[in-house]
Amino acid sequence: MKILMAASEMEPFVQTGPFAHALSALSRELQALDHEVSIVLPFYRSIMRDRKYSPQSTGVRFLVSIGNEKIPCEIFEIDTACGIQAFFIGRDEYFDRPEPSGHSGYQNHSARFTFYARCVVELARRISPTPDIIQCHNWQAALIPVMIQDAHLPFKTVLSISQLEHQGNFWSHDFALTNLPSRYFSPSGLEFYGSLNFLKGGILFADAIVLPSKHCVKEAQQVEHGCGLDGVLREHSKKLYGIHNGIDESIWNPEQDHLIRAFYSASNQKGKSMCSAELLSSSRLAPLPTGPVIAILSQLVTGAGFDLFLPALDRLLAEDVRVIILGQTGNYDTALKVAAHKHSSKLSYQVEYNELLIHQLFAGVNIFLLPRKIELHRDSIMKALKYGAIPIVRTCSGLYPFIQDYDHANHTGTGFLFYDNTSEALLDSLRRALNIFRDKDAWKGIVTRAMSKDFSWKSSANCYEKLYASLLSSS
Q1: Cβ neighbours around 193 below 10 Å, total
Q2: Tens of pLDDT along 271-288?
Q3: So where are the chain's domains?
Q4: What are phi and psi of 279, to 5 degrees?
Q5: What superfamily does domain 270-451 belong to in CATH?
Q6: What is the pLDDT of residues 246-260, one digit of tens each?
Q7: Nearest-CA neighbor of 244 among 96, 454, 445?
Q8: What are phi and psi of 196, to 5 degrees?
Q9: Per CATH, is 2-246+457-473 categorized as 3.40.50.300?
Q10: Does the pLDDT value for residue 103 go beyond 80?
Q11: Residue-level pLDDT at 244
Q12: DSSP per residue over 381-408, as a string?
């Protein structure tokens, strides 16, 4: 299959969040499945001026209509190291800016990404062979399915949505920029409570919509989680799919991770104790605890679970454990600094961290504590499991694909769950984990099961491949 990915960012060219890495990993895995994958991005200033890339002009130039204007576009290209062809939409007035993100405060996002969508459609018509699938990512590319539908083009479109909160909402007058017939600005089109909504248009006119999990598909159709689009999603529920993201095992794999002290695997876990010793040393904590090393990686904001964790902290540190908290300064900063000073040999609180430290953290800890709901931290949970950092998590309906509660009688499970939103429930789950940690054979079994789970992007790419094939077979 020939697959064209349309997105506002992709690693290594431009990255403002984890989505850019996810798209890069998915594209590589689809390429490995013998599909021809291309990506089309805005030609941001950061890409233009980075000498590592130096995209070359394809010589393809055309005009697109944005409102009453005819705007010229030039297409640039480069081949990535893994063989993926990257195209860049060149137009300085839209993309030659210090910040590439669609959330950076620029006033003409509607024009920028209407132009981008028009250019992607025109480029798709000129590529030979033409794409079988155009996969559009998030609101920045969500007008593409609408424009393809309006032009009666033969491409099948998939809209992937990372977060429903970001929809591309603009005032109604910006609809004129799209040059779509007026019938598209209606309750059954892009109109959303009097405004123009890019994401709603994509949901209506894409052939399939992908959310990050089956649980997200269910939640998105509920009033409390649908961000106003729940009714639209319910109407189009037959084309909703939940596909989990994966983790890049060329980067996140303790069997070959050169950023950690020692390699280890599910079948040979000896290296993990060396990683723990190095982490405790670098964190200036006392060595050789009889209990586990516990980590929290989270923003220090209301709703992150620290209102549950802090009341339990003194009782937890009465045990011979070590706790490492990596967080960004926020509501609980002062309380954590005081606690770290009080328990200086057992508790480390750090706000400055980097990729190296994150790798060393997952490799060196025995327990990964996540007081808030897992749906907000799927990526971290997958990495923790891969590195044998056993999660303690408050339960939610989307949990099962990641973690199963430990059952001592049957020796099953990959983590420890607590159900009530209270400090006592969290502490009880921690105590249960500490008791099992003392049983070395039982703990080794949990770690083995956790590390053996398949969160590779290959698995996710296989799901996308099946979706693409089903769309093409229905033509």
Answers
A1: 9
A2: 999 999 999 999 999 999
A3: 2-246+457-473, 270-451
A4: -65, -45
A5: Glycogen Phosphorylase B; (3.40.50.2000)
A6: 888 888 999 999 999
A7: 454
A8: -95, 125
A9: no
A10: no
A11: 86
A12: HHHHHHTT-EEEEE--TT-TTT--B-BT
